[in-house]
Design goal:
The protein is mostly helical. About 75% of the residues lie in helices and about 0% in strands. Helix 2 runs antiparallel to helix 3, helix 3 runs parallel beside helix 5 (about 80-90) and helix 4 (about 60-70) runs antiparallel to helix 5 (about 80-90).
Length: about 90
């Protein structure tokens, strides 16, 4: 019985980690909160925004934009804001 529970648990982890969510705000937050250096954090966030941003809807982009100061801290600057603003303008 223990092996079945272990197998099912591991399968759920594998399936969950390989499933692609188009605009995963949790992934955005994870990058922002787990990258300490401000320049590295800014670069990773801009990369994420350019890669995943076109798949986000207006509501998701609004959530991102409204949480930039809180999540990015000193990495929040005009470049990040302009990328996010363009995402909002192009969102569905």
């Amino acid at each position: 019985m223990k092996w079945i529970v272990l197998f099912v648990g591991m399968s759920a982890l594998i399936v969950g980690s390989t499933a692609q969510v188009p605009c995963d705000l949790g992934e955005f937050r994870m990058i922002a909160l787990h990258t300490h250096h401000p320049y590295e954090r800014k670069a990773k966030i801009i990369e994420w925004l350019k890669l995943k941003g076109p798949q986000c809807n207006k509501e998701q982009v609004s959530k991102i934009y409204n949480s930039l100061a809180h999540l990015l801290g000193t990495s929040d600057d005009s470049e990040v804001r302009s990328v996010t603003y363009e995402m909002y303008r192009n969102a569905k």
